[in-house]
Design a protein that fits this description.
This protein has 188 residues and is mostly beta strands. It has strands at 2-3, 12-15, 18-28, 36-43, 49-55, 59-62, 65-76, 79-84, 90-94, 109-115, 120-125, 129-137, 150-155, 160-164, 172-176, 181-186. Helix content is 0%, strand content 55%.
């Protein structure tokens, strides 16, 4: 058992028959009345984000979570196959557990969160940035680069993102997997 004084970002516990992880929290001590903790929680089962307030000192059931390194192998219609980089054990992950599946490329290293007691996969975390190749985009017009204009582009993995006008078909770019936005062009 843990109490609200143990709260920190990433802390995982059982709440309303669900596993939740703290995204952010704030201890509040008002002038009148008891202290409380305002939290923003993410459900590890459904991915929903909810806000909740806990009275100070409330006990919660802490859940031990392990992060393990895996490598993406291939996909099927209903999910993805990953391989543990240390034991070479393979695991199947359903589609809903991967936040940005359009950035998965063969051989990509990811971290998978596991419920330690039940050996249950909870969530797949992609790297912050991935390198992808542009499959299709309209050509930029010469002299049209004075403004910070973006154009749509499609990557070889199927993701559609906005890129600067100077990016062409075949260019490799770095993409932020959380915001799904262009970071920089990668020199080959």
């Amino acid at each position: 058992m843990a109490s609200t004084s143990d709260f920190r970002n990433g802390f995982t516990f059982k709440y309303n028959n669900d596993l939740v992880s703290i995204i952010s929290f704030q201890h509040v001590k008002p002038g009148k009345g008891p202290a409380f903790v305002r939290t923003k929680l993410r459900s590890l089962n459904s991915g929903r984000v909810l806000e909740n307030t806990f009275n100070s000192g409330v006990k919660v059931d802490e859940v031990r979570i392990e992060r393990r390194k895996y490598q993406y192998l291939y996909s099927e219609s209903d999910g993805f196959h990953f391989m543990n980089t240390e034991t070479f054990e393979q695991v199947f992950i359903p589609l809903v557990m991967v936040e940005s599946p359009e950035f998965l490329t063969e051989g990509l290293n990811v971290e998978i969160l596991f419920h330690a007691e039940e050996e249950l996969a909870l969530q797949v975390d992609l790297p912050t940035n991935v390198v992808v190749e542009i499959f299709y985009t309209e050509p930029g017009v010469k002299g049209d680069t004075a403004t910070n204009t973006l154009k749509p582009a499609k990557t070889k993995t199927g993701a559609e993102i906005k890129v600067p006008l100077f990016v062409n078909i075949g260019d490799k770019i770095k993409v932020d997997t959380k915001t799904k936005s262009y970071v920089e062009r990668v020199k080959s």
